[in-house]
Amino acid sequence: MTDTLDLNGLCSRLLKAEGILLLCHKNPDGDTLGSAAALYWALKKLGKQRVAVLCADLIPARYDYMAIERFSGQFEPGYIVAIDVASIQLFGDAISQYTQRVDLCIDHHASNSGYADELYLDPSAAATAEIIYELVCKMGVELDERLADCLYTGISTDTGCFQFSNTTARTHEIAARLIEAGARMGELNTILFETKSRARLAIESIALSHLEYHFDDRCALIYMTREQIESTGVEASDLEGVTSLPRQIEGVQVGVTLRQQPSGSYKISVRTLPGVNACAICTRLGGGGHAMAAGCELMGGLDNAKQAILAEVERELCKES
How many helices (H) and strands (E) does the chain have? Predict the structure, then answer.
């Protein structure tokens, strides 16, 4: 059974721990990486020498500015911490030797499955990076430019550069403090939101060529096969941004993106407008997430995956009607 911690308990555990391994989720985004990097540098500033970050997938080059030290067996982990990982399936098989014994999880997903021995969960936080900001301050670590960059990365990416409905007044307050501490807002916004690789544009074109409308055009769906993804050479991190495309279409309440994984399964991302619960849709298929942004993974072929997700979308749209 998972025990829950308050901020004091969270702070106490980390200050006492040695040999700290910080785990990110597979297909890492700005929040899992920015939060892990910020905690890594904060612990370093507190004198912790044996700290490192591990992810099943490569860390995208766009995040090089965070200077994350990737774990490569340089010490024996004594305390394993999951950062922004709602369920054990999201780690990826490549690091399974560590994910079976997670001591602590720090997360903001209401759907967190409680797989860790202890959990600090704040569903009101727009990003896990908001929690890490509070933790860093509680531990008495002074914010510097690098810490501010890492935290700004997590908060800005999980709020769509402060456009998503999860953005709160508190989110803006924290962002302001990070900017005051030296976060390079303009430069980071360009890197994270204004720059696309040619491969990203190519996969967007392919995905949109498969655009489908369902349920009186209230749902838009796009998909990408593994062969198509590999033909463009697009990085996994670039695929995350494609998930917003179908929901951006006028009149669409639910945007669904299916992308085939190397195993043949389909990773499904659901983005919705207020009133349609994306998390409910994906939870019924073994996934989870937030009210307006969630995901799941389904085995089987494309037709089976489409049929399953569309059935749940229709079920949720009927509630909304």
Answer: 12, 12
Most distant CA pair in the chain, distance: 59
Query: Under 8 Å CB-to-CB from 13, ≥6 apart: which residues?
Result: 5, 79, 103, 104, 118
Type and span of the H or E element at 63:
none
Q: What are phi and psi of 289, to 5 degrees?
A: 145, -140
CA distance 216 to 45: 55
- Give rounded-to-5 percent helix, strand, coil for the chain: 45, 15, 40
Residue at 140: amino acid letter: G
User: Which residue is associated with the tokens 């009607």?
Assistant: 321
> Residues 197-214: pLDDT tens digits?
899 999 999 999 999 999
What's the pTM? 0.87
124 Cβ contact partners less than 8 Å away, ≥ 6 residues apart = 108, 168
β pairing state of 3-4 and 51-54:
unpaired
pLDDT in tens, 282-308: 999 999 888 888 999 999 899 999 999
